[in-house]
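Annex B. Sample input.
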Amino acid sequence: MLYSLPNLLTISRILAIPLIVALFWFKGDAARWATLALFTLAGITDYFDGMLARSMGKISNLGQFLDPVADKLLISALLIMLVWSGNISGLVILPALVILCREILVSGLREFLASIKVGVPVSNLAKWKTAVQMFALGFLIVGAAGPDFWHPEITTTAIGEAMLWVAALLTIITGYDYLQAGLKHMAEDAGAPND
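Annex B, continued. Sample output.
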């Protein structure tokens, strides 16, 4: 199943991460747009790998493991590089930190829930969170290289920052939902004797 098309798309997303990170060392507008293009391609693979796996009947344990890992690696690497490059700075580091912490929390919760054979389906709100987050990161990648809008204060960076705050709010809400699901199963185990 490693070489199924859905898994290859997921692996391509992981392999794109070092290229995206490397592009941050290049200065100029062309580098920002190239980074956005690569990030967009990675986002497209995220959509198609799951859709193809379901339609082709190629859902595999490997794919179910790799897909969220690829997403979290991509988002985490981008957030770190955007802070490093100064595209995210000041108070806007807070929503980036919230998103990064939530990714770690949810990974831990999913690992725990998987160990007790409990699955937590992705909610529609979590899908919206991901969409807003991806658009925010896209705007922040482009930053000052972005087009001028109808008002001088409405820059590509300002739009990205506003969307990152919205994504962080959705992140808190969906993270709390995951935490509630996890705590419910942890509480069931609280009365059991330790091995």
